[in-house]
Amino acid sequence: MILLDGKALSIKRNLELKEKIERIVSNNYRSPKLAIILVGNNPASLSYVKGKKRACELVGIKHDMHHLDENISQKELEDLIINLNEDDLVDGILLQLPISKHLDDSLLIDMISKNKDADGFHVINQGYLYQKKKTIYPATPKGIMTMLKAYDINLLGMNAVVIGRSNIVGFPVARLLMDQGATITVCHSKTKDVSMYTKQADIIVVAAGRPHILTKDMVKKGAIVVDVGVNRVDGKLIGDADFSDLKEVCSYLTPVPGGVGPMTIHSLLENTFELYLEHIAK
Ligand SMILES: Nc1nc(=O)c2c([nH]1)NC[C@@H]1CN(c3ccc(C(=O)N[C@@H](CCC(=O)O)C(=O)O)cc3)C=[N+]21
């Protein structure tokens, strides 16, 4: 089994990005900047945001943190987004999800300028992705594709199974796998027999948000497994795939932590950098 080491790959690529940014800034351009909006004090969100801030600092992307009370009104958040959209020094805007139930997350995401959509969640950017046009891709799918490419995994003709159909991971990653020539099946909570599909799969991306649902008996020998799960169980972070079980049968496997998570953060930095390049070119 070959470990798909997202941590090591993200460190290497973050350093490369850092050098690119340094070169541009040394030519008297301003630094890139990401605005992070965090609503409330969800412990997981606080921890993710901390990771994102640290990564920004590492590569030379400035960050402005907007940490708001969980009772903030929809209107106040909308006003903040309007201000950030108009701020010429802000390249990317990230609205950390999930947000309080009384707020309309989908409306807020689509209010973020599509030219500042660091997450690639905007309906127009998703539309471009589904039409195979160049755009900002959602960070997790983008990170997964970067990782597969770095390990020279050729998806042409592969049977790919994605478990999970979310707008931010399952569905877009299925699209990107198909673009690379894989035949895709998307399984989800209503699928009658997930293992019927996974047993035929050359590559499985599991993004179900349920700890250890993918096990050895569901996977053929030599399959590639990419684990998007970040489940906190008894204070420990565990994936949707049962790593110690699967490592005996897989050809390639991502660990949790140290797999898709760090690649997601790397892709967020890349997205912010791409938006920055467009802004300073204007
Ligand atoms: N607007 C928005 N954009 C997101 O990209 C977004 C979001 N909301 N909400 C939550 C999810 C989750 N997510 C993770 C990012 C990094 C790790 C990560 O780096 N994890 C480390 C471990 C970190 C730890 O131990 O807590 C690892 O897997 O090695 C995990 C999860 C981004 N998300």
From TrEMBL:
One of its GO terms (molecular function) is methylenetetrahydrofolate dehydrogenase (NADP+) activity. Pathway: One-carbon metabolism; tetrahydrofolate interconversion. Catalyzes the oxidation of 5,10-methylenetetrahydrofolate to 5,10-methenyltetrahydrofolate and then the hydrolysis of 5,10-methenyltetrahydrofolate to 10-formyltetrahydrofolate. Belongs to the tetrahydrofolate dehydrogenase/cyclohydrolase family. The gene is folD. It catalyses: (6R)-5,10-methylene-5,6,7,8-tetrahydrofolate + NADP(+) = (6R)-5,10-methenyltetrahydrofolate + NADPH; (6R)-5,10-methenyltetrahydrofolate + H2O = (6R)-10-formyltetrahydrofolate + H(+). PANTHER family: C-1-TETRAHYDROFOLATE SYNTHASE, CYTOPLASMIC (PTHR48099:SF5), C-1-TETRAHYDROFOLATE SYNTHASE, CYTOPLASMIC-RELATED (PTHR48099). Homodimer. It comes from the Bacteria. InterPro entries: Aminoacid_DH-like_N_sf, NAD(P)-bd_dom_sf, THF_DH/CycHdrlase, THF_DH/CycHdrlase_cat_dom, THF_DH/CycHdrlase_CS, THF_DH/CycHdrlase_NAD-bd_dom. Residues 138-277 form the Tetrahydrofolate dehydrogenase/cyclohydrolase NAD(P)-binding domain. This is Bifunctional protein FolD. Its EC number is 1.5.1.5, 3.5.4.9. NADP(+) binds at G164, R165, S166, V230. GO terms for cellular component: cytosol.
